[in-house]
TrEMBL record:
<dbReference type="Pfam" id="PF10518">
    <property type="entry name" value="TAT_signal"/>
</dbReference>
<dbReference type="InterPro" id="IPR019546">
    <property type="entry name" value="TAT_signal_bac_arc"/>
</dbReference>
<dbReference type="GO" id="GO:0043190">
    <property type="term" value="C:ATP-binding cassette (ABC) transporter complex"/>
</dbReference>
<feature type="domain" description="Solute-binding protein family 5">
    <location>
        <begin position="95"/>
        <end position="446"/>
    </location>
</feature>
<dbReference type="InterPro" id="IPR006311">
    <property type="entry name" value="TAT_signal"/>
</dbReference>
<keyword id="KW-0732">Signal</keyword>
<dbReference type="GO" id="GO:1904680">
    <property type="term" value="F:peptide transmembrane transporter activity"/>
</dbReference>
<dbReference type="GO" id="GO:0042597">
    <property type="term" value="C:periplasmic space"/>
</dbReference>
<keyword id="KW-0813">Transport</keyword>
<dbReference type="InterPro" id="IPR039424">
    <property type="entry name" value="SBP_5"/>
</dbReference>
<dbReference type="GO" id="GO:0015833">
    <property type="term" value="P:peptide transport"/>
</dbReference>
<feature type="signal peptide">
    <location>
        <begin position="1"/>
        <end position="33"/>
    </location>
</feature>
<dbReference type="InterPro" id="IPR030678">
    <property type="entry name" value="Peptide/Ni-bd"/>
</dbReference>
<dbReference type="InterPro" id="IPR000914">
    <property type="entry name" value="SBP_5_dom"/>
</dbReference>
<protein>
    <submittedName>
        <fullName>ABC transporter substrate-binding protein</fullName>
    </submittedName>
</protein>
<dbReference type="Pfam" id="PF00496">
    <property type="entry name" value="SBP_bac_5"/>
</dbReference>
<comment type="similarity">
    <text>Belongs to the bacterial solute-binding protein 5 family.</text>
</comment>
Amino acid sequence: MCRAVLPGRRSFLKYTGALGAAAAVTTTLSACSAGPESTNETGGGGQGGDATLTAVIGYGNDGSWDPTQTASAFAMAGNEHIYEGLLGTDPISREPYAALATELPNDPKATTWKFTLRPGAKWHDGKPVTADDVVFVFERILDPKTQTLAKGFFAGWLKEVRKTGATSVELILRFPFPDGVARLSLAKIMPKHVFSKPGAWDDATKGKAVGSGPYTMASHHPKSNTTFEAFGDYNGPRKAAFKKMNWLTIVDAAPRVAKISGGSAEAEIADNIPYANIGQLKKSGMTVEGGAGMNNLFLLFNTAHKPFDDVRVRQALHYAIDRDKMIRAALKGHGRAATSFLNESNPTYRPARTVYAYDLEKAKKLLDDAGVGKLSVNLMAVNVSWIVDCLPTIQDGWEKLGVDVTLDPQETTAVFTKLDQKKDFQVVAAASNPNQFGLDADLIMHYNYGPENIWMGYARWADNAVAKKLFRDMDQATREPEASKKRAMIQDYIDTVAQQAVLYPVVHNELMTAWDPKRITGVKAQPYPGINLLQAKWV
């Protein structure tokens, strides 16, 4: 395998192999491998026993696999089977459970949480899991000199992690933060004796994985497939039900659907099912279910490019989009118009005070009030199929507003490379799904907004006076210990996010998963990319 080529330290593409649900933000990693002779290299056939479960994932497996860095849909799903946190969370309810730790904190509102590691827990190389491994990972995450994606989920509220015994640790919080309990699932514990070696973090990025979870990574072939085998010494709460798994990466929809179609289907489960294929797959006996969550098409404005620095222009362009038409025509009914930054099933949701119902007259008045006469917009977009399907509705509404529109769909990598390189742009349409990290509204909002946030860098908005007040309000909400008051504070600052519309969703849509109910059971469709088979088994 040749050495990967990485972008700069702060580059978003360093962290992501997929952006949210469908915007497959491919990393600039150029991982080289001869690849397998066959993507069914682990064998298969039959059912149960030694049979191999074959899954088809609609996202690339060539993004970063470093659990402290990645937002890759494929890698995050795979890592859930390979690694454990002190705590895990249910893939659907996101309720926390004891994973490497023996129990949840006795008092989530305390500022010290004590954990004892599961007796007999082992790494995949046979060595015991120790407190040193826990401290090693959290020191990396909290290190001010090390830029990781995970830092944004922990550094604001977690002060330090201390070893209190060979297999015990305590977490010292900056202030009471009960939401941090579920976030501990995002800190995958990794073996110090493996990843403290020179170059080991680069190896992790390229796919080296040694965990304590129910599955080991048996082989990894970028752009082809990743295989897993049950770990015989695993003694945790969610044991492997399949002796072997072979996950194929097939980003193109047609061949992905073909793998699970008909009597000669080669796979038992596939995610990212196109809406147009739902009926066909159900007719063939497959179960097809959707997960509705934060998956969304959003618009990102460059506020350094006039007239998009004017909030009225941004609002006008949102009011000119017929979301109901988009949901009918492009999403085949599998979506909802965004009425808040959060989706409607989020526990913190309430409608924002600014809701962008289709209103051309209001949009025209906003442009007039902003003194904008003739406006031409280049809408740069990722070329993900469902996003491209939505673009004509946006174009139609904007042209009815009197705007000249150029649709500019490009490879997702190309779009975000331009953003990383600070190239000029006007408006970007892409997709995101922070539910990969959880349902916590504080986490979701800080993932998208903040003074040093990558998205705010793209929007050139962080120095705006409204933005600075927003960020202060967000930090105050994070520190608020009383749950109902915190919820109200988050809802209030989301009103600001909606009113400003710098980075804001147009629609939230469902993600569809299909599986063969005659072969596997215990599967649940996720409202975020990937699959989780920790509770699945052969029929």
